[in-house]
Amino acid sequence: MAVNYKLEDLLHLMSRLRDPNDGCPWDREQSLSSIVPHTIEESYELADAIEQGDFKQIKEELGDVLFQVVFYAQLAAEQKQFEFVDIVTGLVEKLLRRHPHVFPDGSLQSRVGEQTTEMDAIKQNWESIKSTERRAKQQAGVLDDVPVSIPALSRALKLQKRASQVGFDWDNIEPVLAHLQSEIAELVEARDKLGEDEIEAELGDILFCVVNLSRHLKKDPETALRRTNSKFEARFRYIEAKLADQGSSPEEAELALMDSLWDEAKSKGL
User: Fold this and answer.
1) Which of 221, 220, 223, 264 is nearest to 242 (CA)?
2) CA distance 118 to 126
3) pLDDT per residue as tens digits for the range 114-153
């Protein structure tokens, strides 16, 4: 009969892995900073499993992400900074504080009754509460707590959303489209007249503007780009397979042939 383990078992397992006498040599060598790349990798693997709709893989990847949290908690506990229970407590307190429309007196037991609050009001209140939290942390600036280390595409979106909350935004999509055309024109001019640094700067402006366009279309740019990456991969694999059937390869084929195979893959819905 299969054993159903609990969170306490996972926490105990983690402490055993870090045991200085008979723990795992690899786990004992790790630090908060050394496992950050693994955390990022596991998060992307979870996102990929969700996009694939593979629930078996989603379950496994969620476990891997949870293990990362437990690992950080163990390392912090060893340094007498905080423990896993402190993470949970802080999270529950924050979520209670940010959901007064669900927990009116800030306790888990309180209930508001039938939910009638409009979504826009909920979002506005959420951001107001977060703004108060930032001031309590002495983060007075609107952009103060937007992490520098997250992927640039995601950070651009967060920066724009934060600025929009204080009114620094266009009211509709038309100026965004016009601004994108303007940025493209500036890139063309930079390519013809300016140096590599200016070209990179103008390219960055275009990417930032595309993120803005995604936001006004209410689409996540990271998700959209991941989707296009998958589409490109499927179509290019189709080209490789068709060329292989002809005894050829992308290295040997003419661009015109590969273009025609690309269109063929596109017509097949790839």
Assistant:
1) 264
2) 12
3) 766 677 777 777 677 766 776 677 666 888 878 888 889 9
